[in-house]
Amino acid sequence: MRCFELALLFCLLGAGAGGAQEPLTVVSWGGAYERAQRAAVFAPFTRATGIPVRVARYDGDRATLKRRAATEGWDVIDMLEPAAISACEAGLLRRLDYGAILDDPRAARADFAPARLRPCSLPQNVFATVMAYDDRAFPGVKPTEIADFFDVAQFPGKRAIRKSPDDILEWALLAEGVPPAQVYDLLSTDRGLRLALRKLDALRGHIVWWEGAGEAAEMLQDGRAVMASGYNGRFFAAQQEGAQLSIVWDGRLIGYDVWAIPASTGQPRAAERFLRFAARPEVMARLAERIPYGPARQSALERIGLMPGKGIPMRDHLPNAPQHGPRFLISDSLWHSHTSYLRQRRFHDWLQAGQDGKGG
Amino acid sequence: MAHPAYRAIILTLCALVVGALASLAAIGLTDAVLWLNDRLLIAPRARVQYEDSGSMVAMATVLVPAAGGLIVALILRYLSRARRPLGPPDVIEAVQFERPMPPLRDGVASTLAAMVSLGFGASVGQYGPMVYLGAMLGGTVRRLALAVPNLPAIAVACGVAAAISTAFNAPIAGLVFAHEVVLRHYSTQAFAPTTVAAATGYVFANVIFERPALFLLQFDGVRHGHEFVLFAVLGLLCAVLAILFMRLILRIASHAATSPIPALLRPMVAGLAVGITALWLPDVLGIGKEALRFATIEGAFGAGELAILVLAKLVLTALCIGFGFVGGVFSPALLIGILFGALFWTALDASALLATSGVAVYAICGMMALTSPVIGAPLTTILIVFELTRNYDITIAAMVAVVFSNLISHRFFGRSLFDVQMARRGADLSAGRERARLQALPVTGCLTRGMVLASTAEPIGAVRARLAASDWNEAYIRDDAGRFAGVLRAADAGGAADWDSALHQPALTFDDSTTVLEAMQALRGFVGDAIPVVERDSGRLIGVVSEAAVIEAYLDMSQTLRREENAVL
């Protein structure tokens, strides 16, 4: 566990610099993403403030948050925006005082747009859920669009999909030819949900489910799947490590990753200081240089340079780079957070319906 | 007449200003309706987020349209002097008969009521109110004395063109709609400014506000030749459905007027009907843009669902409009048509008799073939398909369906719902604008002066002397009460000496409701000086009108129209 050792090292470093400073517990997602965060955010934060950072991991689930935040002393959480909205409405998160976090909240609001400064969550980066395929599996005709993901006749093989109704339903409607601007309107109707799940029926028996964010790329590498839906940064990291996979940007789903402070934190001031540090444009740019997740602030974009050590110009790999094509969908976080039970229920029913013989 | 350069500048400025304002107004109206739909849980995207909040969605479904109905009735009752919705027929009437638009206050009230109707989920359309709003803004130009001929009509057309251009993101369709439906002639003088206005609308919608195209569609072309026959058949069926739809609207509207439900409560009753239906069929609420999209996806609806929805939408729209909600028929027609097109394809597909190119093209054909007869604008609908879908193959297919539908409906119903509504109000354009104008021109407007007028109180000899001294062959005689009594002919100068036997009843009399058109027809074979015009109720003599004066009025009218239709600048 190199990461763990690193974390420990930082803790020690922090402790050394700041004397008897109590460490701040920041919760994140592990893997390539966490490595990038350590280098771009956590370590510089400790250097600047003397507050050591202890890193914990979680799976993004609200139940986990409820169960572990208080007992493990979480102070700052890296969350997906819909989850943060739900948690905020359930009172699990602290309301943010933007006056203390941002120098000029009014100007910053415009800088963050179209991302929104919500009551409990500060946008940090933009990621895309994209489709990737194993280069070795399709040497001839290659998948180029979202509809190909659902086309097992032309592109046979297993699909790695996150075991959640979060992104796949949107893809199902995009594959039906629904324009991105209408996807959420249609998914809001019972008919739209039925239609999306019917599209998913085409993949019955061809799905391997993943739950941890890094698994999608692993499944492509070890042959458990030939196509996968996953986060663009993870696929990029796998490519850097030599995996033979290609990303299809058509129909990418763009979402926001946010910072939030749990209501149970014991050190709200230090947590706010962390958010204040992480929201700086130059800090966001440093992260984007290490993993291709776009900064949530416009002013950070122009500061993004080459990937340290590799010299790759990172702007080309961000979800919002212009050469990725016109068809993308910005995930509606509010809608996601308010429909999660409904979608979970329908998704669960769909999974159940498949268990009599055909498999999921 | 003012200098051509001056006229060019005025026309261009007017097109730009009216185009920009109409476009902003259309965007504003759309946004206001979307906002209301969102807040009032009419939009599915808002409803689904409260799915787990008990019966809140169901309550909103039933109560919101009904509440909207009451508000609409109150707005029309207390803010509008006309106390009725204003729409495209009023625009067409104003332009075709060179009248001013209805008062601004009534227009604003009607627009407000339309916003509430649409926002609260009534089954009515948004484009009629948008067209009216654009026309209303264009109509204000008439108040400025700018000394440019035909400017009021052109300004109204500019408003209409910009509104359609913005609403559909379809500038060419906006331009053609203004000509096909409102102006009803093509002149360079009108064409140029309406084009500028339509382009302005497009710039606002597309460049400044970046509105997406409404109905982008993937379609790879019609695969089989025989399908064009199917499109024509679909067009014919759509014509039948369109006639049914329009007749139902007129029927319900005329029944509503005599129904025991007080006018103030009528829209509420219609709203309640919509709400209760929506508990089972949420697709009937509001404009239904989700259903519009689903209809182009294979298998999104079953055949039974489609049939029920077509019927429900048809009846509820007629009910909403007939019972006093304010809104158009354009978008409901689009929805009914697209669902019917999908139904046609589903039946075809189930029969497995013929190969087809998929549901999308049939849905679009149905949509346009049903809408075109309702608004009476085949060219516009064909162009709307083109600009909405940006797909040439679909446009050709839709063209076939639209043409056949229009043919049947025009023959058996009329040019459009608007025209029939206008004809019922006494402005019949079915035989052309020249005839309609002549029909709107009262003969009292061309009275002849200098005739010999006399009263039975005068001695008959004196009157005969006056008559003999004049160029006239007849004197027009009134009785003591001023009523028309008859004519005294110069030819029987030596005739009876008492009024009773000397007076003749003329071969022809007109009254104050006689139009120039009727006069022209009555004058066939008429020999004589002039025809007396008598007030219908009192029998009072208003004046006389000579054959020459009637013909002059007719020629003047023809010339005005010819000038307008051939005007360059």
| Multimerization status | heterodimer
Count of helical stretches of chain B: 23
Instruction: State the CATH architecture of the largest domain in chain A.
Output: 3-Layer(aba) Sandwich
Instruction: Give the amount of beta strand of chain A, in percent.
Output: 15-25%
Biggest interface, chains and residue tallies: A-B, 23 and 25 residues
Biggest sheet layout of chain B:
3 strands, mixed
Arithmetic mean pLDDT of chain A? 89
CATH superfamily of the largest domain in chain B: Clc chloride channel
Choose one word for the global shape of chain B: elongated
Number of domains of chain A: 2
- What's the total number of strands of chain B? 6
Q: State the share of residues found in helices of chain A, binned by percent.
A: 40-55%
Q: Which whole number gives the mean pLDDT of chain B?
A: 91
Largest sheet of chain A: 10 strands, mixed
Instruction: Give the topology string of chain A: H per helix, E per strand.
Output: HEHEHEHHHEHEHHHEHEHEHHEHEHH
Polypeptide structure, described:
The complex is a heterodimer of chains A (360) and B (569). Chain A has 360 residues and is of the alpha/beta class. Chain A folds into two domains: 2-124 and 257-316, 3-Layer(aba) Sandwich (D-Maltodextrin-Binding Protein, domain 2); 127-255 and 323-354, Periplasmic binding protein-like II (D-Maltodextrin-Binding Protein, domain 2), CATH 3.40.190.10. Chain A has helices spanning 2-18, 31-49, 62-68, 81-89, 98-101, 105-112, 146-149, 168-175, 180-187, 190-201, 215-221, 232-240, 268-278, 281-290, 298-301, 333-338, 340-354; strands at residues 24-28, 53-57, 76-80, 121-134, 159-162, 207-210, 227-231, 245-260, 294-295, 328-330. In chain A, strand 1 (24-28), helix 2 (31-49) and strand 2 (53-57) form a beta-alpha-beta unit. In chain A, helix 8 crosses helix 9. Chain A is globular, with a radius of gyration of 20 Å. With 569 residues, chain B is mainly alpha-helical. Chain B folds into three domains: 4-208, Clc chloride channel (Orthogonal Bundle), CATH 1.10.3080.10; 227-427, Clc chloride channel (Orthogonal Bundle); 438-557, CBS-domain (Roll), CATH 3.10.580. In chain B, strand 5 and strand 6 form a beta hairpin. In chain B, helix 8 packs antiparallel against helix 9, helix 10 (227-258) crosses helix 17 (392-412) and helix 22 (516-522) crosses helix 23. Chains A and B meet through helix 9, helix 10 and helix 16 of A and helix 2 and helix 12 of B.
